[in-house]
Amino acid sequence: MSPYSLLTMEDLGVNDIQNILDDAYRFTTDKKKWKLPLENKSAANLFYEPSTRTHFSFKYAQSQLGLFVADVDTATSSVTKGESLYDTAKTLESIGYDLLIIRHPQDKYYAELENINIPIINAGDGSGSHPSQCLLDLMTIKEEFGKFENINILIVGDLLHSRVASSNKYTLEMLGANVKCSGPKEWMRDNSSCVPLDEGVKWADVVMLLRVQKERGASLTNMSDEEYLDKYGLNKQRYEMLKSHAIIMHPAPVNRGIEIDSSLVEAKKSRIFKQMQNGMSMRKAIIKRAFNIREF
Ligand code: CP
Question: pTM value?
């Protein structure tokens, strides 16, 4: 496995994270002033699960960086003939691709890719990790508050099935933020930091909402979408309880009217589309690291 792979946030120390954030900031501010030696490099995107934000922001970032990009369609490739993830990845490496971006429904799928020598960027594994989402979330928080130490982060909703929640909780605590959780008790991974939602909303500088992951089996018996919003979602009354400087985040896609009242998705305190915008610069910075390019 390449040391420049990014599989989980545990792969990065505080300095690594800082360097990636600095690079992403530079990609945002120094538009087109940079030139990286990537003209003869290539990447293959291998998405075994649907994606809009992650897939297409990686693809756009790759094209802006000058990479040759192959989008491997799992529905028309030899994956349909039963070729394993390892054999598919090894094939792409053998053809000559220099980088793999992989999303897969299996937790820790990358454990079977130990013998792949080109860098792998994990674009999401089951309910495990989503490091590029975590890094763009960090970028969004840093832009807002300038630091992580003592920032109060409330993560709300379906923590059990969320790879975003586990990556973000681990990393934000490592960086000195205070993290609490709220949501249905069935969906909490660790009850120790669990608080009632209204209390958490008043405490938070950042309210990070999570999608109810129905495709991973998340469901609450006898609870309608309206009841979920009322009990566990950000409705208009709770929006009014937020601190004046507080922000709302959500990795998206959003289930409007379930995790958040539809009218609040683009409210003044929402940074949901800002997160997606930051995803472009952040994914360029992650690719830069994967190719071990130090300078711009
Ligand atoms: N946030 C996120 O991972 O979105 P996609 O599933 O659309 O990539």
Answer: 0.96
